[in-house]
Amino acid sequence: MRRRSAVSLLVVVCGGLGAGSLPLAQAGIIEGVNHTHWAIERFSVDGWSGLDTIGPWQRGGGGHFSLPARWTPGLTVRIDWQTGVGSTDDFPGFADWSKAVEWREKVLAQRRNHSRVVPVPSYRERSACGITVHFLPCDHIEVATSCYAYGHPEYPIKTPLNLPEPQSCPK
Q: What is the arrangement of strands in the sheet containing 25-34, beginning at the earlier edge strand?
């Protein structure tokens, strides 16, 4: 019994000593800005869910995310996302079940999974307020850590929300 107590005390003391030396993190919300005609059906940043489906040319999100307290050169995040049809305008209804099933199959066939590792722009200590992921045409991604909201004059990414889709994307 004494040995178990001594080991428990040692774990608590050593754990407590290490905890004070851990770097602080800057926590915030994961947000997404969809600049495309596709729906962003789900997305994540380094495995942390953005929680929200984002329609074409809309904003959303809501998951929690932490950045290191200090930015370092080469800091990156991995963005995983799934795109799909952004409209139900051509849904035939349920009167003809075979047409509804055919429509569903067409929609599911257009889903795509994507993944990109992107650089995190430089930030100062206590100046990052979560992360905002910008989904751009041709599966391009940009991220911002600004405390200003998209559309504010001080926000670093000025790309318009409703971007025209290019005829083709570079390979």
A: 59-68, 25-34, 130-136, 140-144
* Residues 136 and 163: beta-carbon distance below 8 Å: yes
DSSP-derived 3-state class of residue 121? coil
Give the 3-state DSSP-derived string for 36-102, with helices as H, strands as E and coil as C. CCCEEEEEEECCEECCCCECCCCEEEEEEEEEECCCCCCCEEEEEEEEECCCCCCCCCCCCHHHHHH
Whether 135 and 81 have beta carbons less than 8 Å apart is answered as yes
Q: In the prediction, which pLDDT does 23 show? A: 54
d(CA 118, CA 141): 7
Among 76, 80, 55, 56, which residue's Cα sits nearest to residue 67? 76
Q: What phi and psi values does residue 60 have, to the nearest 5 degrees?
A: -175, -170
Which residue is listed with tokens 């349920």? 94
What the block records as the tokens of 77 is: 């995040």
Query: Any bridge partners for residue 28, and if so which?
Result: 65
51-104 residue pLDDT tens? 888 999 999 988 899 999 889 999 999 999 999 988 788 898 999 999 889 988
Q: Are 30 and 80 in contact (CB under 8 A)?
A: no
Q: Which residues pair with 33 in a beta bridge?
A: 59, 134
